[in-house]
């Protein structure tokens, strides 16, 4: 459904839960400008986060992670995340984008957020939209985001992969 981010006008940090398999050797992040069509990848070794330093505002990027073992055998792709930086020099907001859940009983999505990784203190119900823009929540603060799908019985999916975003200080020109 979603994954991870950080932006300082052109930065993005992806983070994911560790693979528990004993023979884990590392992770590869696959990315591109079309959903499901990854034209590049980066091997991040055995780290569970990675920061891309040059993300162009105005373009939507898609990311997925694969784990691999010592024999170089890869897992399947993680859930895909779409991310489109806000085209603003002051970085006053962030737009989260995700692929639609295809389950027939889907009722909507909730975006959870907070100031600590994995500790979400608030959420917003975005209905059936597959994107949501947060304007600056608190200038100068880093927020962590994750999404859940829910059905008509209000049963929620697990959290998506986590995103984080550093909101700019808006105290200058």
Write the layout of secondary structure elements.
Elements: E1 12-15, E2 24-32, E3 40-45, E4 49-52, E5 61-69, E6 81-85, E7 93-97, E8 106-114, E9 122-127, E10 131-135, E11 142-151, E12 163-166
Antiparallel strand pairs: 1-4, 2-3, 2-5, 5-6, 6-7, 7-10, 8-9, 8-11, 11-12
Brief sketch in words of this structure:
With 173 residues, the chain is mainly beta. It is built from no helices and twelve strands. It has a six-stranded antiparallel sheet with strand order 3-2-5-6-7-10, with no helix packed on it. A four-stranded antiparallel sheet has the order 9-8-11-12, with no helix packed on it.
Structure summary, number of beta strands: 12
What value does the average pLDDT take?
A: 78
Question: What's the tally of helices?
Answer: 0
Order of helices and strands: EEEEEEEEEEEE
Uncertain spans = 1-9
Strand order of the largest sheet: 3-2-5-6-7-10
What this model shows, in words?
By secondary structure, the protein is an all-beta fold. The protein is 0% helix and 44% strand. It has strands at 12-15, 24-32, 40-45, 49-52, 61-69, 81-85, 93-97, 106-114, 122-127, 131-135, 142-151, 163-166. The N and C termini lie far apart (37 Å).
């Amino acid at each position: 459904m979603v994954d991870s981010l950080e932006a300082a006008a052109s930065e993005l940090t992806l983070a994911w839960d560790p693979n528990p398999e004993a023979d884990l050797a590392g992770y590869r992040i696959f990315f591109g400008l079309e959903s499901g069509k990854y034209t590049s990848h980066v091997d991040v070794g055995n780290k569970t986060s990675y920061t891309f330093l040059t993300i162009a505002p105005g373009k939507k990027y898609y990311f997925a992670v694969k784990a691999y073992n010592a024999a170089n055998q890869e897992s399947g792709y993680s859930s895909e995340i779409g991310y489109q930086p806000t085209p603003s020099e002051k970085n006053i907001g962030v737009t989260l984008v995700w692929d639609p859940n295809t389950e027939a009983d889907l009722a909507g999505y909730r975006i959870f957020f907070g100031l600590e990784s994995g500790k979400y203190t608030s959420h917003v119900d975005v209905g059936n939209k597959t994107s949501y823009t947060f304007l600056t929540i608190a200038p100068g603060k880093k927020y962590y985001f994750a999404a859940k799908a829910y059905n008509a019985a209000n049963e929620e999916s697990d959290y998506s992969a986590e995103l984080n975003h550093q909101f700019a200080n808006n105290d200058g020109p």
